Amino acid sequence: MTDIQPDWIAVDWGTTNMRAWAMSGSGTVLAEGASDNGMSKLTPEQFEPALLDVIGPWMQGPTTVLACGMVGSRQGWVEAPYAAVPCPVAREAFAQAPCKTPDLTVHVIPGIKQESPADVMRGEETQIAGFLELNPKWDGIICLPGTHTKWVHVSADEVVSFQTFMTGELFALLSQHSVLRHSVASDDWDGAAFDSGLADGMARPERIAARLFSLRAEGLLHGLPAAAAKARLSGLLIGTELAAAKPYWLGQQIAVIGAGGLSKRYVDALAAQSAPATQVKGDAITLAGLTAAYRRLKG
Amino acid sequence: MTDIQPDWIAVDWGTTNMRAWAMSGSGTVLAEGASDNGMSKLTPEQFEPALLDVIGPWMQGPTTVLACGMVGSRQGWVEAPYAAVPCPVAREAFAQAPCKTPDLTVHVIPGIKQESPADVMRGEETQIAGFLELNPKWDGIICLPGTHTKWVHVSADEVVSFQTFMTGELFALLSQHSVLRHSVASDDWDGAAFDSGLADGMARPERIAARLFSLRAEGLLHGLPAAAAKARLSGLLIGTELAAAKPYWLGQQIAVIGAGGLSKRYVDALAAQSAPATQVKGDAITLAGLTAAYRRLKG
């Protein structure tokens, strides 16, 4: 039992893990917690105990929790139905999760859907809201690199349209489960190989399945080092994505959300296309989005 | 111990399994055998016992074996160095595997490589040779659908060039290990969904990573049935491949080798592009290629 007295608790609950922050009313983080009890590991009944494992020590009487992410999916704790684009970035229709603990109230932020081309997001909408909190009146394209990278058109405080690419998942599958897994097994990184893969992917995206096999053949025939093969694989996949996402980023103001190396690669790749992008750290953004949602809830 | 007296034994030894045929000198199959001791499961010392498990009962004195496939790779029984394109379909440089059994002689057919764009094949060269045995003086494009689909330009009894696409492996990875695995879990097939995926893949191949995520979103938002999602996934991947392989197949005589449904899909897809292709059964082709190699060996 810690000695803090949070006014509310922010939770980012994804597929593979969850993070929680004990918050003061003025937006100060009083404590942080995390667990690997992601949505995919839990049945609906297991969400409340999994949450209490992390936030229990912070609770001192009635407690309000605001959560975003896959916790609100059909397989999650409570389904928070998608809002359809175009829709305001800041929405007020939260879903309330069923709780047995009398003092606990959990509100879940809904995701956003697009009917055609069919697309969905859960969690990213809160990052987008957070980014707009920190950058009021911002118009342009927000790119959120990850397992399922999203390109989002934001204008006049609304999400206009978006498109998701499975690029990150393809990279993981190919690196870990394909015939290429030995060819790309390296902790090093070859920036020049990334650049050449990126250029090839953008120039001839249709050749992706052939370029992939070439990585293996280049290793067999010409001794392509694993660090170069891995970086080239990433470049090929991101280049193919950038070729398709061009209608999103061409001539637009661009923000790339994410602190890690992957987001940096997107920024560098866009810079090489004369499309300067601002890189923004993800953690503070998520918390800003949850905080804005809490203010609307209390509003 | 069976009562047959083969003149030689044909072996097709791939990554995941091996098949063997006891052959008469006139080319009749006297017996067949198979095992799941593929190259990937064996250390170099284990190949000979694995072979004897299958062909031992057929041996009556000195025995000549002719083998093709991954058995001749660096990780196989004996490395049979690649011939470089352009090269004759029918070559005579076999590698001899080290054997402890005095009466056993095992010759391994080398694969074919292409320096640039880097590419390799092992096993398919024997199918190509078999096809040319059955279709003398044939010129055109041979497509060999599979885990790693190959497009091969054959002219004047030579392999001129080729290109390998990881399309089949991508389909398997996405069907079994990705976020799409539940969306596409079906034993049924939706031909119309395949056709529409094929058309989309050919028309905008760069969008492949976005189209993949759309399969999931279509399931969530619009209840896309699994049989349709699976067929559409296959169509998208094959369509993307056909877009890239167009310089191979456009305006050419085409043969697609393989008896199964996958090869039929390629034939249908090409027909939809006004590129008629002949479908040829794979088993007889492999055996014809091994038989032709045996004749050259006995020269």
UniProtKB/TrEMBL annotation, chains A, B:
Keywords: Kinase, Transferase. The keyword Transferase applies. The keyword Methyltransferase does not apply. Pfam families: DGOK (PF05035). GO terms for biological process: D-galactonate catabolic process. GO terms for molecular function: 2-dehydro-3-deoxygalactonokinase activity. This is 2-dehydro-3-deoxygalactonokinase.
